[in-house]
Fold:
Amino acid sequence: MKKLDLYIIRKFLGTFFYAIALLAVIIIIFDISEKIDDFLEKKPPLNAIIFQYYANFIPYFINLFSALFTFIAVIFFTSKMASNTEIIAILNSGISFKRMLRPYIISATFLALMSFTLSNFIIPVTSKNMQEFQKTYLKGRQKSGQNNIHMQISPGVFAYLENFDAVKKSGFRFSLEQFDNDGMTEKLTADQLIWDSISGLWTIKNWVRREIGPKGEVISRGATLDTLLNLKPTDFYVDVDDAIYMGYRELRQFIEMEKMRGSGNLLTFEIEKHKRIAFPFATIILTVIGVSLSSRKVRGGIGFHLGIGITICFAFILFMQITTVFATLGNLPPVIAVWIPNFIFGILSIYLLRVAPK
Structure:
C-alpha cells in the first residue's frame, strides 16, 4: 500500500468512527434522560446499566447508522480534499481516478464486513443481554397468546390449538393428526395442553386417541397423559421482533422450520435475512456515490456536497423501506424487495463514476 492509500484510509475510518462516536454519546444522553425515572424507581446496579445495557446498545447503534455515516464521512473528508485542491494534485500526478478509488473500496469493504459481523453474530447476543436487562429492571416486553393455531410440527404431523395462554403456558382444544401416503393414521384430541418446564413434557387432559389401521379404528381415552411433542411454548407466540435476537445460522434454521410449519410470519424473517447481506453491501455502493459526488471542486464546497449526499442517502433508506412494505403487504419476493435499492443506486454509482473528474 502506498502513502496515498494509507492517507485516505486513515481519513475515511477516522472520520467515520469519530462521527459515530459523537452521535452515540448524544443518543445515550437522550436515552438516559428518557429512562431516568425507571432507573430511579427500579434502582438497577450501575455496572448493569453500563455494561449490560449501554455497552450492548452501542453495537446495535453503530450498525444501524453505519451506511449513513459511511456516506457522510466520505462526503465530508473528500469534499474537504477537493476544496484544498488535493484531488486535483493527485490526478495531475498521474494517478487515475480508479486508482484513487482503491483505498475507498478497501475502507468500505472493511466497514461492510464489520456491519455483516455485527448484524449476524454480535448484535443477536448483545440484544439478548439488553432484553434481559429490560425484563429484570425495566418494563419487560409482555407476550400474549394466539388463537386458532395451525402448524406442521414434523413431516406428516399437524397440530391445532384453539387458544394458547403465554403466561400460564397452557392451551385449549388441542388436536394432533398424523398422516401417511394412505391418509390419516392417528388423531389425538384433548381439552387442555399444559407445559411442564421441569420435565420438558406436555400434560394433556381429557384426551381421546383414534388409531386408524387396516382393520378399523382403535379408540382410547384418559384423564391425563404426559407426552413429548416437537413443540415448545415459544412456538405459539412467535414475535416478529425476535428476528434481531437470532444469529446467522439460527435465523436460517428458524426460517426452514417455519416453512415446514406453514407460519404466517415468514416474510418478516426472510426480509431480515436478506437485509443482513444487502445492507452491508450498500456501504460500498454509497461510498462510490460519495466519492464521485464530492471529488469535484464546486463553489458551494462541503455544504453543497453534504446537502446532495444526505438527500441521496435518505432517498436510499426511504426507497428500501418502501420496497420492504411491498414485500410485507404485497407479492414482491423478499430477496427482490431488499436488493432493488442496491441495484438502482448501484446503476447511479456507475453513472456518477463515469462523469466524475478524471
Q: What stands out?
A: The chain is about 60% helix and 20% strand. Residues 3-139+267-355 form one domain.
